[in-house]
Amino acid sequence: MPPVPTLKTKHMLGIIASIIDGVLVGLVYGLSAMGLTLIWGVMDVINLTHGTMIVGGMFALYFLANGLGVPPYLALPPVLIGGFLAGVLLYWVAVHRMVGRPPLMSLLSTFAVNLVLIGIGTGVWGTALFNVAVSLPGVSIGRYTFPGAHILAAVLAAVIAAALYLFLHSTRLGKAVRAVANNREAAELVGIPTTRVLAVSVGCGVALAGLSGVLIGTLFPFTVLSGDGYQLKGFVVTVLGGFGNPVGALLGGVALGLLEGAVTPFVPVSWTLVIEFALFVLVLIAFPAGIFASRRGAL
Amino acid sequence: MTAILELDHVSKRFGGLQAVNDLTFAMHEGEILGLIGPNGAGKSTLFNLLNGVFAPDSGRIVFGGIDITGQAPYLVARHGLARTHQIVQPLTNMTVLENCTVGACFGRDNLPLARAHDVAREAAAIAGLDDRLEMLALHLTIAGKKRLELARALAAQPKLLLLDEVLAGLNPTEIEHMIGVIRRIRERGVSILIIEHLMQAIMNLSDRIVVLVSGEKLAEGLPAEVAQNSAVIEAYLGDPKLAAELEGSAQHVS
Amino acid sequence: MLRRPFFWIIALVIAAFVAAPAIGDDVDLRESLALATVYITLASNLNLMLGYAGYINFGSIVFFGLGGYICVWLVDAHGWSLAPSLFAAGIGVSALAFIFGLGILRLRGPFFALSTIGVVEGVQAFVQNFGPWGGSSGIYISPEVFQPLGGAARALWVIYFALVATMGLSLYLSYAIKISKFGLGLLAIGQNEDAAAILGVPTPRYKAWAYSASAFLPAITGGLYFFKSAFIQPSDAFDLSLSTEALVVAMLGGQGTVTGVALGAYLYEELRGYLLTSEMFSHFQLVIAGVLLLVIVLFFPGGLMGFIYSRFPRTQKVLE
């Protein structure tokens, strides 16, 4: 859980500062949701290992940075590769047979894999708290300091998101992904190797989760079980931003960050998740297709 | 004759498409009313409006004297309106008997389970499924599934039955059988609104025809009149095969 | 129903649960079977949503926990005796479930499932901050409450029989619903909700009733369980892993079947008991559950009963 921001005052300026910080963090939330919404949009599969994959990224950061002394942000490339491979493996284990079946079945299969991963994780590391100390010079405006780590994380999140957008729109493989998302049968008829594309999509989705884990790891301490909270935020963001819509996810993340920034000065931390979740349910009841509902396959 | 169904200036739009536009017509009790028109004319949308899947943007739908405009599907079913689907929707892992029993239980009379079983058996027999009562719906052939759609709708003991392309995908023998079934259903006093592309069949079956083009009513009347209506023929001229059938059936009927 | 053999099969099971530890006054067996009854009760009631209506409820533990809290609080803070407290817990949680259900049941399949995950978080957060219920420290009951039941030792037997009775009621409830018109409607919803609605099944009401019904007996079980422990706190009351295990068990045994769920619950509980005593596996209980669930979902979606029915089709006439 993100700690209460450094500014404890309920002053109006303080709230604005909190909101700005929220936007920064929100960009990272948006990135973390992109993996979820990508997989959801491409194959109508809800990846319940998403949170755990984020934690995977966090642990990778910890072992690389604290264990091997690698500069924290250089953990990104290996996590990109490792996450991609993990995603492809996940596809073959839990998703492949579920494509085309009702989404409830993929919920259960990814849920099962998640149980296994969490079980192993808690068995080995318990609920110990891990922290990667990243201190960068912050930006100070008046009384308020915006931590350098927050700013860099936000910038990197935006860069990665842009890279994803370029991938989806300017590369052949990316276009194949969008084609499969739009209409899998038609894509097959045109000769696109759908199974490979689906595996790549899950690979990307998990890689994104891992990358966002690295970035979040530079901001807040974590345990094996931290993934739940971020996964939940991921759902909220997906619903706000539209399923399968990465740009929407980024915007949704910012919106969520904004909301958090506005709310956290007033409300005890344990309630933040509850409020976000209530938001998730309410939004879905009102807008069954999400708020920025572009048509499915609007990648 | 009393009107079992009245549509009063009903309209429905989906985004940029005006699916149904200011539609008004009435259906008499006990008649078979045929609904024809080119693909995309709004026929299935009309069915969805009638049984509550969508609510119309404007206009009224009155069924048996009750205003059912925009009511939820299960309420409409309770009033005595049943329908079949163009793309069949069986309850796949339930048997034929169970499928029909659902129709009987939750249809017009809201029957208790025991009585519903009897009604279900009857309906299945009318549709010719009594030899397959214990078969799972997913094991039926396409023709079987179509019969199941019909049997299930019939089991609800409706006053008005909406049939959506119930003959599509059947071979000539099956078509003949189905037409016989439909006639028998009408003899039991059920009013039938039928969408069909098989011109000969629908022209022969129907007492009256309504022609729908681009969501609007183009013509209404006896089959013979409609078949000779120049506007109707022109609407179908884009599809020469259908136009020929139209002419052929016009000669057949008159 | 009395004429059907399955009715008597359930009765036999209940009798076995009652007799086995009673003959010989075997306290260890009693405790092990008590846990089994909890699993069977939770899984059977979960089945009403999962196997019948086709809605996955990840957060069924909420009923168990809330029921526990209401019962314990009434006994401790208001001096109520056990029976009315249990009843109040059952009614209270079902009523809450009904009202809440009307809201979240508007969400379709996967979204409903996701929101049930959040319900647990929400309720747990609420209870943790709720003073009258002891907040995060929970509530302790003083041992005096066991006196009206004949003292602590005897009370444990009484509670055990009550747990068995609740389990029995759950099995009968599952069965009764399955052969009723209500059950038929739920099964239709589970097959194809849109088609069911068009056929006249009043889907919003039916789903809400099923959700509410699935809350009643787990709430009472929760009340009994935590009364027995004489202590309740949020992390125990809303333990997501128990919820998960109920789900695994229902899938393992065969969702939608009464026998399968009970059988699956019993087998799983025995397996779990064995694993917990084994040094190596105690941390990996969830892993086993996960692997089991994955295998079932991938290869045996019909669960144990699905397998048995396909090998021995005639059993389907007798078992449910």
Describe the structure.
The complex is a heterotrimer of chains A (299), B (254) and C (320). Chain A is mostly helical. Chain A has one domain (12-115, 147-286). Chain A contains eleven helices and two strands. In chain A, helix 1 runs antiparallel to helix 10, helix 2 crosses helix 9 (227-241) and helix 9 packs parallel to helix 11. The longest helix of chain A has 32 residues, at 12-43. By secondary structure, chain B is α/β, with parallel strands linked by helices. Helix content of chain B is 41%, strand content 24%. Chain B has helices at 43-50, 73-79, 96-106, 113-126, 142-155, 172-187, 199-205, 223-228, 230-237, 240-253, and strands at 3-14, 17-28, 32-36, 58-63, 66-67, 81-83, 160-164, 191-195, 208-213, 216-221. In chain B, the strands form two sheets. In chain B, strands 6-7-8-3-9-10 form a six-stranded mixed beta sheet, sandwiched between helices. In chain B, helix 3 (96-106) packs across helix 4 (113-126), helix 4 crosses helix 5 (142-155) and helix 9 (230-237) runs antiparallel to helix 10 (240-253). The two termini of chain B are 25 Å apart. Chain C is mainly α and 320 residues long. Chain C has one domain (5-318): ABC transporter involved in vitamin B12 uptake, BtuC, CATH 1.10.3470. Chain C is 76% helix and 1% strand. Chain C is built from 15 helices and two strands. Chain C has helices at 5-22, 27-53, 61-78, 82-104, 109-128, 152-178, 181-191, 193-198, 203-229, 234-237, 240-253, 258-277, 285-299, 303-311, 315-318, and strands at residues 139-140, 231-232. Chain C has a two-stranded antiparallel sheet. In chain C, helix 2 (27-53) packs across helix 7 (181-191), helix 4 packs antiparallel against helix 9 (203-229) and helix 7 (181-191) crosses helix 9 (203-229). The chains are: A mainly alpha (299), B alpha/beta (254), C mainly alpha (320). Chain A binds chain C through residues 46, 93-94, 97-98, 102-105, 107-109, 111-120, 122-123, 228, 232, 235, 268, 270-271, 273-274, 277-278, 280-281, 284-285, 288, and chain C through 54, 56, 58, 103-104, 106-111, 113-115, 117-118, 121-122, 125-126, 128-129, 244, 251, 283-294, 297-298, 301.
Write the layout of secondary structure elements.
The complex is a heterotrimer of chains A (299), B (254) and C (320).
Chain A: H1 12-43, H2 50-67, H3 76-95, H4 103-125, E1 139-141, E2 144-146, H5 148-170, H6 172-182, H7 184-189, H8 194-219, H9 227-241, H10 246-263, H11 270-286
Antiparallel strand pairs in A: 1-2
Chain B: E1 3-14, E2 17-28, E3 32-36, H1 43-50, E4 58-63, E5 66-67, H2 73-79, E6 81-83, H3 96-106, H4 113-126, H5 142-155, E7 160-164, H6 172-187, E8 191-195, H7 199-205, E9 208-213, E10 216-221, H8 223-228, H9 230-237, H10 240-253
Parallel strand pairs in B: 3-8, 3-9, 6-7, 7-8
Antiparallel strand pairs in B: 1-2, 1-4, 4-5, 9-10
Chain C: H1 5-22, H2 27-53, H3 61-78, H4 82-104, H5 109-128, E1 139-140, H6 152-178, H7 181-191, H8 193-198, H9 203-229, E2 231-232, H10 234-237, H11 240-253, H12 258-277, H13 285-299, H14 303-311, H15 315-318
Antiparallel strand pairs in C: 1-2
